[in-house]
Amino acid sequence: MAPKYSHVKKRSSALPTATSSKKSTTKQDNKKPSPHTDRNISQALTAVAQLERAISRILLIRYEQDMARLFSTHLYSVALCHLPSLVMRCTALGGPGWIAVNADGEEIKEFFRSVIAMDLREAGERVATKSVLWSYTALRQFAMSNDVPVCQKKGLHSLRLLPHFTALKAHLDSLEAMPLVSFAKPPHLGPLTEGFSALEDACNLAFGPPTKGKGSSRGSREDQDEWRLKVKVGYERLTQTLWRVAREFDVRGYGSILREKLTNKWCDCGCSTDHLSEVCERTVRDGEETAGLRAGKGREWDGRGVGVYGWETHEEEDVWDVELDFASFDPDSRASETDMTIGELMAWKYLQAEREKELGNVSFRTGDYNSAIEHYRLAHEIEPELPRYQLNLAAAFIKLSDWMSTEQACNAALLQHKSSKGYWRRAKARKMLGRVDEAIKDLRALIRLQPHNTEAISELTALLPPNPSSIYPTKGALAGGSSSSANNDYLDLPKPRPPKPLPFATTDEDRRKLKISNLPLTVDIPSNFEFMAAATAAMGKTPPSGRKGKPKRRGPRGHNDMPVGPDMKKTSGKGQTMSFTYPNWERYLVKKVSD
To answer: Is residue 161 a contact partner of residue 294, using CB atoms and an 8 Å limit?
Structure first.
């Protein structure tokens, strides 16, 4: 039988035709694309990546600025509402001049540090969401002022901002050129006269109103005036100490979840910004419908939007005074697991972290430092916004002579709070690593925080090379903590400013020793609490255990009612009773230690 296609004339393959040549050329081009096309694609991808990096950097810097401003507003509110109560309690035990004399003492500073650290751990939940919304609003207004269309459903597409990258970069440069943000009294808020008026009224109720003569519990009119002066000076100095302690904390160390998303997890292709736009656009439009639509022209980089009452006015809202009463959104959790608010979940996160820290302390005291390290690490994973657990880690690493890990733990702690413990332990680690110059810098930073720390002065003196000049005192004299000018010159420390003289004479009462302690609260921990593990995981953290059971809490409700120094006691087969002190501005005790 003849072949099926024998009637088809075969094409000669001796010489390639034009058609075959064209196909060959096309095939060759597919294997080796034009270098000009590659260059254009590469340049486009680089431009998009630069745009996305600029957007993420703008979001991060504006978050730090928002956090500094809002937390400063919170501290101003603390000075108005809570410091008068502290003055009253100390006055009742130490006399009217005690606060003025001891406002800069370590007892008050440590109390402030503990409560400020607890407040700052909530910065992510209280500021991050609002700040991202405001920054998106700012980008949106920038786009509208440059006639860039904004989708009603998907929001602003970042690629539409590419033609305006130069202006966007100029705004970023202006943000980066600003000085590092810190906590300070907001300039738009008035003096603290309202706080002192409340303090004066409370003193009149507690100690009797002023009288023209005798018969008052505070004596004559002259005594009343002196008493009032002492209390006023004490209140003013206490407020100044509050701001000084707040500036020990670094804004850049907080908001770790948002910071991670904006740095390591921010996609350079544009999908991260598009997702942000889709999430924020509806909120922005709802706010505009509620507050009235305002034109984008003339509002470039104005991102205040909605969310804080009285923006930059004397009536500005303290967002730390707002309860975190919204529920968590975990699609995998059961309905019975979503009845806890963010505030309650944060309180239980802290309880879990403190429980791990206490277990670590038990191991530390028995000499099992490796076990202590594991517990401290778990505590830090649960509560990464509290630097104390890194300091616990550093102490355990020192016991194992692991100097590199000690330095790393101290670095993490000092990134959030410039503490004396952090500087001291890092100085020891750097000294053992042979980096004496860096250890000297840490010791000097410690002495600036605590000018009368004789142990740090002695260690610094031992590390410094001997000075042949005879005009300087001996190292033994320096180690004694002398505050002479020669001492400061030799140690290369700034000369301490002399304290501002008091406008009244001090008394024996002013030298009484008072102690400020946080009051403990007690919670019942069931033997199984996997519920809390799932709830904590929903907030992005992995708890140390996976057990079931919903916790029961004693005492009034609220995020300030969670209890530190865990004291665990066995209950009747139903779990443990744990006592915690949860530092806050309301639950504390002032007691007299000695006259």
So the answer is: no
